[in-house]
Amino acid sequence: MNDLALVRRVLSNEPGSFDELVQSHQRLVWQVISRLVQNRDDTLELSQEVFLQVYYKLEQFKGDSSLATWIGRIAYNFGLRFLQKQGRTPAIDEEHSVEQEVLEQESYLDGMQQEAVKDVLTQALKQLPPEQRTIVSLYHFNDMTTVEISEICNMPQGTVKSHLSRARERLKTLLESRRSIL
What we know:
Layout: H1 3-11, H2 17-37, H3 40-57, H4 67-86, H5 98-105, H6 111-126, H7 130-141, H8 146-153, H9 157-177
């Protein structure tokens, strides 16, 4: 179903339509916020707030971008505002990292090797600044384009590419230094 049709269904209060919208975009919202705040409880609360905001502002969606981009932008802004209000270094929630979930699905790794790879990747990603961590996640785990990420993060596409490039170089350096574990 296309974005505008789903939005029209939600705006006309069609039963189940908002649930469909939430189910379609909850993983994106979770990943964007969790990358920024890195705390499960805060991520859960902010995710709920994002979808409330989506519900109240849905009539403003014009279809100029994809619905995922529009919702991702709201999530990103909520996460940034939360970090600004807290004025703190985000706590780390190792149990629920998306990197761990993705790596768990890869069948070629098993046992201790899989745990070692997850730990190394999670630790490497934690060393990136929140914006780079979010951009890497959107690009590699959500298959978003730099144009879509640019819209979500409200930064020029060149800046997104620069952040992505720097993050990859940093990850490469971090992962190469841990190669013996892998």
